[in-house]
Amino acid sequence: MTKPTALLLLLTISAALAQTGPSMDPVEKQEPSPMAGFAGLGKDRPADAKTEITATKEATFDNAANVAEFDGRVVVRDPQFTLTCDHLKVTLSKTRKGMEVAEAIGNVVIIQENTDKKTGKANNAIGRAETATYHPASGKVTLKGWPSVQQGMNNQVATEQSTVMVLNRNGASHTDGPSKTVIVETKEAGAAQ
User: Fold this and answer.
1) Is the residue at 29 inside a domain?
2) For residue 149, what is the domain's CATH number?
3) What is the number of domains present in the chain?
4) To the nearest whole number, what is the mean pLDDT of the chain?
5) Which of 4, 36, 46, 68 could be joined to 171 by an S-S link, Cβ 3.0–4.6 Å?
6) What is the pTM assigned to this prediction?
7) Distances (CA, A) of 84 to 38, 98, 114, 141, 152
8) Is residue 80 domain-resident?
9) Residues whose CB is less than 8 angstroms from the CB of residue 146 and which lie 6 or more positions away in sequence, other chains included
10) Considering the domain boundaries, does residue 51 fall inside one?
11) CA–CA separation, 132 vs 104, rounded Å?
């Protein structure tokens, strides 16, 4: 890939990842669950936000198909999250003014740093799976292949490979298939002991 093509690719992907859209998902009106994590993914994105994608093996862009693919230890650094995986495929809209879908494949780890509104402390939400698919229009992240989500000390882990976890940008989540949830209750700072 030539340097001008790589630069164009990075600018195109940065603009594409910046797209957010209104959700048509009625589930988004639900209260966030204690295991949801990933609240706000794609919402209230700063206009000057920059996304950096690195790959150790290869980066390609197919103009006709509007598809960018990254191979080898892929790292996506964004102001709202960090994603690592073996392969990343980003499909842009036909107008290239936004992203239709992003698919992370192999050893997927998504980390979103959240701040607890009560304590002001950082509380990372970490999602792991064999694959993750992100649809910016709905704000949904779908984790497949032994998915797990950890938020603080709370964990939800698939107990079968076929379990699917769907996370919404408002903090709601849904799990299809067997899983185990562990919720750890901690005492509030300053509470009587």
Assistant:
1) no
2) 2.60.450.10
3) 1
4) 77
5) 36
6) 0.72
7) 15, 21, 18, 15, 20
8) yes
9) 128, 129, 130, 158, 161, 163
10) yes
11) 5
